[in-house]
Amino acid sequence: MDYFVHESSYIDKDVSIGVNSKIWHFTHVQSGAVIGNNCSLGQNVNISNNVRIGNGVKIQNNVSVYEGVELEDYVFCGPSMVFTNDINPRSKFSKGRLNYKRTLVREGATLGANCTIICGNIIGKWSMIAAGSVVTNHVKDYALIVGVPGKQVGWVCECGEKLESNYTCSSCERKYTILEDDSLIKIEGENCGV
Questions:
Q1: Average pLDDT, the chain
Q2: Which of 8, 22, 123, 156 is in Cβ range 3.0-4.6 Å of 4 for a Cys bridge?
Q3: DSSP 98
Q4: H helices within 11-158, ranges in order?
């Protein structure tokens, strides 16, 4: 094996795990799951059936990634954050997997400790969801979301620093601009970041 699985963890049949990934104590990866290269799954993590996880993803302790959730490359899931996959669950009236709402977490997004992501939403690339926030709507690329329910309070750089009003990162000097539709994009070119 070119990946590590702690002896206390369970890996079902028909699972793909990438090179250099690490799966720690008491974790369960269910059938049909795909985990990319260089991922780290902490203690007591559950990866449900058919979940797709990109490269370089870090999932901290006590996180369940339910069927219908997809994590692109370099997503960070903080400790005890929560995904959902059913908008109106009932124990007695289970609707089954065909009714799960898809949740997509785009490249580089950070989901802070104890935040909750309501299913059916897209979390934009390089966005940051603050600890304890509850996301009920789509999140723009590079958006900083805080509160219950989550509201956008600013923008963050790819490196994670909050951007000031000139949209230039004071830490890494990456430069961004606002478009007419109130979305933020990175300015590519020389002298724009590391």
A1: 95
A2: 22
A3: G
A4: none
